[in-house]
Amino acid sequence: MKVITPTKHSIPKTPSVVTIGTFDGVHIGHQKIIKKLTKKAADHHLISVVLTFFPHPRMVLQQNANIKLLNTIAERKEILSALGLDYIYVQEFTKAFAEMSARDFVKHILVEKLHVRHVIIGYDHHFGKDRSANIDDLKAYGTEFGFEVEEISAQDVKDVAVSSTKIRNALNSGDIITATAFLGYDYYINGTVVHGKGVGKKMEFPTANISIDEPYKLIPKNGVYVISSIYNDKIIYGMMNIGINPTFEGDKTTIEAHFFDFNENLYGQKLRIYFLDRLRDERKFESVNALITQLRQDRYNAKQTITKRNA
Fold first, then answer.
1. Residue 156 above 70 pLDDT?
2. What's the confidence (pLDDT) of residue 157?
3. Which positions fall inside the Riboflavin kinase domain (predicted)?
């Protein structure tokens, strides 16, 4: 699989089957489309191409929207790469690109750059300036330029009943189980371990403070979570607090992971943290001892969750 960016690379002049979208999260609905794409490519001796966009269109067109994404662009490429694609074509989304007419998009991108022979697209797909063109327009362009359009029906979409927005809403409410079911994998964040205040260590719960790689990555709702990570090729489990540490009068959101039966120095390390479940809301305790008592209960509950998950 190769990632193509318009300014740096070109795609072979081989007829392709293409699907188009932002694919934030690359959830089970996206995966269903991509399976259809790779099968079509194999059956007809075409190359499979996902045409995706970065930044997210809403980041450019609604600059005050402050949208948070399920994947960084690096994560999106990684997940897509594992699905058997030949190429990922990343189109930079700018205000100038947003002004491109639907016909120019088809002619200059799909036909001239991607050598499209077949497009697989959702029934409700819109494209071109002001998203003015729909699937009927795309079919008309297919007749003009010599490619076929395969429509993903409304029923197929309803059968999956999932969207990136639903997953974002689940994570924003702390519903990890629903997010996992819709994604088809455990939601995760990537970050670097940085120095904190050392409070956790004094309470017998040393933590790795995580600084997130990209500010647009969605962080789940504040609270305490069951987590896992990979360190030295081994799975390590733990719990993580996202919040402001109200018991210590904190006012800045931090992400602090405590790993069970683990005493390695992680400062400066890059970690990927997987969310397995949510234990509780963050809250202010009347004393440090009360907080420690709760953390011990959290640890017990987290280990129970992990045991059931691995049974």
1. no
2. 62
3. 182-307
